[in-house]
UniProtKB/TrEMBL annotation:
Entry keyword set: Membrane
Keyword Transcription: no
Name recorded for this polypeptide: Penicillin-binding protein activator
Keyword Ribonucleoprotein in record: no
Transmembrane segments: none
PANTHER family: PENICILLIN-BINDING PROTEIN ACTIVATOR LPOA (PTHR38038:SF1)
Amino acid sequence: MIELQWINGMTLTRISIVSILSTVLLACATGPKPVPRVEQPKVDDTPATATPIAPQDYLQQAKQANNESEKLELLLDAADAWQQTDCNKSLRIIETLRDSLTLATQQGRATLIEAECLYQHDMGQQAIGLLLAHDFDLSLQPRLLTLRAHMAEQENRALDAARLYQQLSHYDVAANQKIWPLLKQLSLKQLEQAALQRGELKAWLQLALITRHFANDALLMASQLQQWRAQYPNHPANLTLPEDLDQALQTQGFKPQHVAVLLPLSGRLQAQGEAIKQGLLAAYFPQSGQRPVIQFFDTNRLPMAEIATQLNEVDFVIGPLLKDNIDALAPLIADKPMLALNRSDAANHDEHYFYALAPEDEGQQLARSLLERGFQHPVLAISSSPALQRMAASFSLHWQLQKDKLPPQVIFDSNKTMQQGMESLLEVDQSNQRIKAIQSMFPGEVHAFHRNRQDVDAIVLFANPEETELLVPIIESSISPFSAIIPVFASSRSFSHDLKANSLRDLHDLSFIDMPWMLPQHGWVGVEQQSEALWPNRQDSLKRLFAMGYDSWQMIPHLRHMAILPELRVKGMTGELALDENQTIHRTLSWGKIQQEKVIKLAME
């Protein structure tokens, strides 16, 4: 048995190699299942063909070491090596050695091993606490930066992670490859705010902003990149552009000469088809230069197979609107770009894109926004309408994925069930029962106020305007005068331009999401004035379809670049538009709030 001796003041510590072996063998039988090790930065002078040394070999070398310092380093090497396969053994070794580590470099190394293991065991806060409590030697900075960057990524702090990889690139140039994908996750607003700050990341941020501002015009983006390269001649992205950015530079947007538009222009959905057509033409006629030929087909009169035979000269297709028609037409025009006005479950084809005013997007956005603002315990009030139930289901699914639990909800189909449901959801009915029980015990007059449950911090309504107008006062009357006000949120289905002053008064402080087109202070005032003059009594649902038609035309030149750069956003009447990996367009809506009998636009996203 070999013993390691340390003298620190008057303290003598003896560490047995056998006890170390016993400790780590015990760890094999207990503790959580091991997880993959945090990747370490590459070291330039390490041969590519070097064979890793087993932890047991380090222990054997420690027995044969010539001095105590070397022995401790070898034991730390063993803890490091075991981290690759079993962090539990590493932690046992660190715990055994802790009091014997007197050198700052050894203490820092042990702390890093422990923090990395805690991070791998989903104990990020404990790992952060360890790192904050210790000063690390310069030689440990690459490893420290790697760990902190991984932790930032896991916590979805993309900008912080990018900054840490930028610092790490001074030790390991491969870290530069991590920065661009992280910046792609940031919104345009986040990029613009970050670019105002000084720091080494500024060049990367300016490059990301170029892609957001100019990606739809390859020539203009090339000019901007040339200026950027002149300003940052030694930047790593100057030598090799990110692959997606290089591809965007080589790609021209759609410039069709003959566009076919497939809509139901007669029959049951004629009003919907006409509204989309009118919105599309509102975007088409102001177009400068030579306009493409545009040809409309009535999908209510002609089958898809017959329409397909008439598309030989067409180089872009907008529509159809119905899923069945999309599924029937798509394989017949697999060689033509198409912007379908609905989503489809059928197999996708190259350059077939799908655009719908999907309720699911609204539900997910509401859940995402409440989570970002720190709400923990929302409750849902849901109409029996199928579209609103789909929206609520999307909210609940997204919430469950993030919080591992479903939010409480109530579904109503009448005024009576609405009242009963809200009282049950807020547990007001239980409070009223307790009040009645007390009143029955005392024949005299009893003064009492009901109390609502105290854990609820948000109420989300999935209801139409008429139902919402009834729900908000019910909610207000259900909140105890002793309780804090609970904010109420709603989808676009809760708002209507037809609401009068009295209705808006009843809905005061209601926050909701809707198309920018449906809210004040949008950028299409001229189009709105023309639309109101031509169709003064148009329903809200048709106003939204008008906006859909407008955006469908405006998106055509952007689609290819949206596919290459998923972070690219197009600001449209129907929302901020983005394309996913399935070539499906998703919308992020704007926020509005009712205050003093009018709607104001909010900046909440």
